[in-house]
Design brief:
mainly alpha, Rna Polymerase Sigma Factor, Chain: A, Arc Repressor Mutant, subunit A, about 0% strand, globular
Amino acid sequence: MEQKQVKLEEKEIASLVERIKQGDREAFMRLVEGYQQKVFVVTYSLVRNREDALDLVQETFLRLYEKINSFRPGENFQGWLMQIARNLSIDFLRRQMVRKKESLDELDLDREVMAGAQSDPARFNPGQMLQKAVHLLPPRQKDVFILHHYEELKYEEIARRLKISVGTVKSLHFKAMQRLKEILAPQLGGNQ
């Protein structure tokens, strides 16, 4: 993931998609270069493990290659690709939960990390704390938060993607922010 991200314009994406549909591997690699970091951010934000996220990035692009003919011109390509990444990540988490038979208690915040942040400032890792807190949100709130803050989608785009109203998206985002404040306030020295 250390490669520099390539910025792709909408017209170039449409051209690359058409070339991929015709079997052009170079066009496929160009799309991979343009989106692999964004796909990694989405997968990592959900699975919270670098190796698993990297595997899911590869799986996402494999799925993209397999399903490229189902992409409709005029559709938001990035949104379509990120939905593939998100769905694969959720499927991965479901399989992992079945295999490990984790209890809800195991999904609780890592108290050692949180306690360590207060007693030892050197162990303070706000990014890790936020990821753990986001993972505790109810599913719809988590979806909206990730789509808005990690994928940088506007409320209208989130509403279309999740097939809910813009008002519902705003409400879920507000509730997610409130819940995150509640979860993180004790660790950051604030009041609940």
